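Hi everyone,

Forwarding the result from last night's run.
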Amino acid sequence: MKIKVKISYLSLCYLVTGLLFYLNTVVKAIAISHTSIKSSPQINKINLYNIPIYDVEALIPSDRTTVDLMQIVPPIRLVELSQKFKIALQKKSDSEWLSSLIKNTSAGQPLPYDSRLGVSKTEYQEFLSLSHKLIMKKIGTSMLQIKREGNKYVFLGNNSLSDLAGITLDLDRNLLETPYGTTVEILEVVADAERQRLTGAWSGFMWKLEQFDRHTNSNIKIQFSLGRMTHNGRGILHYGITRISGRAVAKSTLLILQYDLVSFH
């Protein structure tokens, strides 16, 4: 069976972090999980009904806020090496070797070098080194519109923020309603400068949803985060969606926004 691996400029960081550090299936090599798996923050599970409303409310962008659109940018050389991975994996008709390699690699550790990955040993070491040099860059601005209905905040998808359409944050129940379902888990994110090198240290909350969609016969993973940056006090919003069908990523979306935090109006 031929392995199909999709690589895009935006999702390259997930190939880097997933393929080398958390890859237990080919899909996870590209699947969006959070703003860099390897750089993910310390996370604490907390009671759904034990979060003061004002703690979350203080992190919500004000209506019609101008937000910075952020993108994860890899070095050009990393893109070139990733293309070699892509070509090699597409050519292989037997995936058992890769499955075995993944299975025998401890979580959190890079895969051992294998020539079938499509790069030389020297290039593989270069790839590992470059994977630590991803940066986040501002690529534009947009206006975010949010409608308040009591303690519910409805995100309106407009312009370049259409992925947020249908998102409602219910602070009375600490739940996030999405077009794909309602989250069942909320986590507290603790700022950690070392583990959040990509985004910069921030603290806040994360809502998660993972479920099987019988209509599309695919698994869907959603993570939505709101936080406050440690170094400048600005807000950060992260929204990631991954739809996985069989062994292929059918759809992936990543939206990262930064904005000034002011009282909602």
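The chain is about 20% helix and 35% strand.

Cheers,
N.
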